[in-house]
Amino acid sequence: MTPQIISDIATLRALVGSARSAGERIALVPTMGALHEGHRALVAHAASVADAVIVSIFVNPLQFSEQADLTRYPRTLEADAVSLADSGVLAIWAPSVETMYPDGATETRVSAGHVGTLYEGASRPGHFDGMLTVVAKLFNLVQPDVAVFGQKDAQQAHIVRRMVADLNLPIEIDVVPTVREADGLALSSRNRFLSADERRGALALSEALGAVEASAASGLGEALAEGAAAFGDHDAVKLDYLVVVEPKTFLPVSDGYRGEAAVLVAAQVGSTRLIDNTTITL
Ligand code: PAF
């Protein structure tokens, strides 16, 4: 069965309230829609750890730094609902912009702090504050026991975890591994914008991560050089950043760092921005 779509706050609160009264554990999967297998992996995880799963679908204007990017972001609510048929989802929470922001953009923002200005935050100013603000609103509206995020947006997952810890929010954050195409490309709602040639070029991201991992034993500088070399061949692909960070702080690792680290990469592929990441041991 296709899950019901709810767009008003009173109905959402009533539904969540009755699930809670029935003693059910509630999971929230926050998304912006255009659902793909990566999202369905989040939903499958949510259904395995909770009794009632709410998927939110809301393209959040606050987290877009460019109007053109917001305008072209895919909106496919009906198809998304059909794709969640028989997935165990109780309801799709799909509010309008007016419902989420009745007085226009919020005066109050949740700040993602210093890490929110790095990497994705440096290229998309205000993105993480806008993302955290809507996630805080979604958490307050649904009041889930657990919320599920994708590892593909590793910096986002780190920042959300940090907010939950810093503000003592009683919510468990689960992060689900990235789903990839057979050739390594990480699934993303933005992949649909790639031409056939750009789609080939987009493999530079996962190839760069593989190259950093393969040469990690040669030291940080060498590994990053090998990773950056993966971007040499593709005219349509422009590397934005390739960086190795400490998983606990998300700050760049210092020379001589030993242990697990996250490798983050972002590139502009034609008019589409893509990100990816992996974990290595230095
Ligand atoms: O990852 C996303 O799709 C969005 O950033 C999120 C978490 C749904 C907030 O708008």
UniProtKB/TrEMBL annotation:
Lineage, top ranks: Bacteria, Bacillati, Actinomycetota, Actinomycetes, Micrococcales
Keyword Transcription in record: no
One of the record's GO molecular function terms: pantoate-beta-alanine ligase activity
GO BP of this protein: pantothenate biosynthetic process
Residues reported in the UniProt entry to bind beta-alanine: Q63
Gene name for this UniProt entry: panC
Pathway annotation: Cofactor biosynthesis; (R)-pantothenate biosynthesis; (R)-pantothenate from (R)-pantoate and beta-alanine: step 1/1
InterPro entries per UniProt: Cyt_trans-like (IPR004821), Pantoate_ligase (IPR003721), Pantoate_ligase_C (IPR042176), Rossmann-like_a/b/a_fold (IPR014729)
Keywords, sorted A to Z: ATP-binding, Cytoplasm, Ligase, Nucleotide-binding, Pantothenate biosynthesis
Any Gene Ontology CC annotation: cytosol
CDD domains xref list: PanC
Organism: Orlajensenia flava
Subcellular location: Cytoplasm
Protein name: Pantothenate synthetase
